[in-house]
Automatic annotation (TrEMBL):
It comes from Haloferax volcanii (strain ATCC 29605 / DSM 3757 / JCM 8879 / NBRC 14742 / NCIMB 2012 / VKM B-1768 / DS2) (Halobacterium volcanii). This is Cytochrome d ubiquinol oxidase subunit II. It holds the Pfam family Cyt_bd_oxida_II. The lineage of its organism: Archaea, Methanobacteriati, Methanobacteriota, Stenosarchaea group, Halobacteria. One of its GO terms (cellular component) is plasma membrane. Its main location: membrane. The keyword Membrane applies.
Length: 332
């Protein structure tokens, strides 16, 4: 029998690996919501465009990115399964219809642009254009419902707080989509898109306020008024103000830079309110749900080696396709 010594009995370098992996799972979820979030936002904004050239520009803006961005959701599921298998099993068994809804929306969002480009008659493109919008809006909505139900331990398909959080996530993706498209477009399209930013931000902040008010009134045990959640709310408000000021001043790269702050503050708020529970519906804590030390150490080493490669890939991808969309560029 192989003797792994302290590697099998003690956390790597004495690190709090339980808490780090809990944070990593939510960090990966935040990466998906940020990167694929602006793709969803572009899909929602697509509904406001009726000019063929403008629609092609919107599709071309996300064409190189969306399939790579979507990988983060797969990584989230893999990390949750690997580190917290009991939580993964409980969540997916309780919310399998919601999982299928998210999967169906993502399939529709991914398939629609491909089909949209296959034919250029009006009826065909109208149908697939609508399918693209539906997939782009419903995916973040159901993801928001899932996040709310995970935090609150709700077992039904839909609930009032789930719907409110779902709408908040949709609004947040529109905020992200506006910031992204404002960088990638020029002229009248850029100005039109930028005009949606303040309205989307107002909707997001209003829905967050409603959610926080509900949690304070109905679930005071979550500790919304504790220092860390309040600090995250303040950070979100500061990022929102920076986003709006940057849009108004035409500093679109700076506006888009505020988006990850908003996204990760939202995800961190969910994680903070949930901790130390990993599955509030069953009462499983992070310490109860985490795998044993040896596989946890092995996964930690593997993640430390692989994550820099993943970030390098995305750095190359985004630098290669940086800059605005040029006239004549298309999705295909």
């Amino acid at each position: 029998m192989t003797d792994y010594g302290a590697f099998a009995t003690d956390p790597l370098f004495g690190l709090p690996l339980q808490e780090l992996w809990f944070g990593l799972v939510f960090f990966i979820l935040g990466m998906f919501l940020f990167l694929d979030g602006f793709d969803f936002g572009v899909g929602a904004i697509f509904a406001t465009r009726d000019d063929d050239e403008e629609r092609e520009t919107l599709l071309a803006a996300i064409g190189p990115f969306w399939d790579g961005n979507e990988v983060w959701l797969v990584v989230f599921g893999g990390a949750l399964f690997a580190a917290f298998p009991a939580v993964y099993a409980n969540l997916f068994s309780r919310h399998y219809l919601l999982m299928f809804a998210i999967l169906g929306a993502l399939i529709l969002r991914g398939l629609a642009p491909e089909m949209y480009e296959q034919r250029h008659d009006e009826a065909w493109q109208t149908w697939w254009g609508r399918a693209f919008v539906v997939g782009s809006v419903s995916a973040p909505f159901f993801l928001g419902v899932f996040a709310a139900h995970w935090l609150l331990g709700v077992e039904s398909l839909l609930s009032l707080p789930g719907v409110v959080v779902g709408l908040a996530v949709v609004a947040l993706t529109v905020v992200a989509g506006v910031g992204f498209l404002a960088m990638k477009t020029r002229g009248s399209l850029q100005r039109d898109v930028a005009d949606y930013g303040p309205r989307a931000m107002a909707a997001y902040l209003a829905l967050v306020v409603v959610t926080l008010g509900y949690l304070i009134a109905v679930r005071p045990d979550l500790g919304v008024l504790a220092p860390i959640p309040l600090a995250l709310v303040v950070v979100s408000l500061a990022a929102a103000a920076g986003y709006l000021l940057a849009l108004r001043g035409g500093r679109y790269t700076l506006a888009f830079g505020a988006v990850p702050v908003l996204v990760f503050a939202f995800v961190a708020l969910v994680a903070t309110l949930m901790f130390p529970l990993a599955d509030p519906a069953t009462g499983l804590t992070v310490a109860d749900a985490i795998i044993s030390v040896l596989p946890l150490n092995i996964m930690s080493v593997a993640s430390a080696l692989l994550l820099p490669l993943v970030f390098t890939y995305f750095g190359i991808l985004y630098s290669t396709f940086s800059g605005p969309i040029e006239t004549g560029e298309s999705y295909s």
